[in-house]
Amino acid sequence: MYTLSGFIAEFDKAMVVYKDVSYFGPVREDLIALTVQYSQLNHLEILIRGYDDDVRSLYEVPEVRRWINILHTRWPDALFWLTPGSLWTSLLCLNPEMHKRLPDGRLQIALDTDHIYEQFAASVVAGDEVLREAGLAEDLVERACDQALKNLSQMFDRKQLGDYVVVHPKDGKILTYRSEN
């Protein structure tokens, strides 16, 4: 198991259903500030409450796909910050043509890795720009981008929540940001 610096953010079903992405803005600002303060990429593990009883994977739920798409459109760097597990869910939300439920109930996933890499690369470019504008030194921006690319590689290797834990860089504790809803 390895450790990723960052935190967990919980979003509830009502936010997703009502297309409310306002809470993501402050979460993203905290990620940027922590990355600059600690000179290393800080990660986000996204949890969405309210779908525990749904047999579908989050990326099969239309309103979750729409919500992730809104996040990605509003903040092109959104994928840059994500842990491997959250990347998996988000990229499958953004690319519903890459998965389908078979008649026997099994899930079939056929990844177009070139397309995924293009999407992710665009997010890395946006994250690079955000960190430069925030004043992070060029060599540290490059290191953050390398870590983001490593997360993508880990996502392809694991295809699920991996063998990692996300801890806050200040005290090394698991910290979960929760929406007020």
Secondary structure layout:
Blueprint: E1 2-12, H1 13-17, H2 24-38, E2 43-49, H3 62-74, H4 84-94, E3 99-101, E4 107-109, H5 113-133, H6 138-158, E5 164-167, E6 176-178
Helix pairs in contact: 3-4, 4-6, 5-6
Tally of individual domains: 1
Distance between the termini: 33 Å
Helix-strand pattern: EHHEHHEEHHEE
The proportion of residues forming helix, as a percent range, comes to 40-55%
Determine Rg (CA atoms, Å): 16 Å
Biggest beta sheet summary = 4 strands, parallel
User: How many distinct helices?
Assistant: 6
Counting DSSP E segments of at least 2 residues, the number of strands comes to 6
Average pLDDT rating: 92
In what range is the share of β-strand residues?
A: 15-25%
Quaternary status: single chain
Q: Which stretches are low in confidence, meaning pLDDT under 50 for 5 or more residues running? A: none
The shape, in one word, is globular
The secondary-structure class comes to: alpha/beta
Can you characterise this structure?
The relative contact order is 0.22. The N and C termini lie far apart (33 Å). The strands form two sheets. Strands 1, 2, 5 and 6 form a four-stranded parallel sheet that branches. A two-stranded antiparallel ribbon has the order 3-4. The chain has one domain (2-178). The chain has helices at residues 13-17, 24-38, 62-74, 84-94, 113-133, 138-158, and strands spanning 2-12, 43-49, 99-101, 107-109, 164-167, 176-178. The mean pLDDT is 92. With 181 residues, the chain is α/β, with parallel strands linked by helices. Helix 3 packs across helix 4 (84-94), helix 4 packs across helix 6 (138-158) and helix 5 (113-133) runs antiparallel to helix 6 (138-158).
